[in-house]
Amino acid sequence: MRFLPFGITLMFALTVLVASERVSAQSSSERDKQDLEKLEKVWNDAHEHGDADALQSLWAEALEVAVPRMPVMSKTDVVAFARSGRMKFLRYATLSGSTAMQPL
Hints:
Blueprint: H1 6-49, H2 52-58, E1 64-65, E2 73-74, H3 75-83, E3 89-95, E4 98-103
Antiparallel strand pairs: 1-2, 3-4
Helix pairs in contact: 1-2, 2-3
């Protein structure tokens, strides 16, 4: 039985390893993108339907929201505002990877 020289065997093994890492990174990247798109939909739906409980679970404790001509609001303030029913949006749109809101 004849074996390939060690250098050729090593090069082949490294090529397979690098190729499998690229495929793994691409699938991981695609999964991450899908997870973020799913999360964005939950976020957008919660805003559109005024679902304060869903928003509260999505928002970090350190959340601060700045709106023109209003004081900066903490998570507690924004959740209370969402529960008041005064936070309404007509629709969300994703434009070139950015999300835009259109208030009522």
